[in-house]
Design a protein that fits this description.
Blueprint lengths: L9 H13 L2 E7 L5 E14 L2 E6 L3 E4 L3 E6 L3
Length: 77
């Protein structure tokens, strides 16, 4: 059973907010609804809660539930 109330750990949440504010390019590795592993690169443009479920938004168009995220890799240059 999936935990729809999953929240990012406080430290990770702060890191994600900093990445978002600094407009740092990231690679997000996550499991899609079919269970397969997906990767997307872009900017985290929002972190929000909707109906008690936390999401991150990539490039203002792709929303990913935090419970599906397995890794966020910062592409510092």
């Amino acid at each position: 059973m999936e935990d729809d109330n999953f929240r990012l750990a406080c430290g990770l949440y702060e890191q994600v907010e900093l990445i978002s504010m600094r407009k740092t390019l990231v690679k997000v590795v996550y499991n899609n609804v079919n269970g397969s592993i997906q990767e997307i690169e872009g900017l985290i443009t929002d972190v929000y809660v909707k109906n008690k479920v936390e999401y991150i938004q990539i490039d203002n168009k792709k929303d990913i539930q935090t419970s599906q995220i397995s890794n966020i890799i910062s592409n510092k240059k």
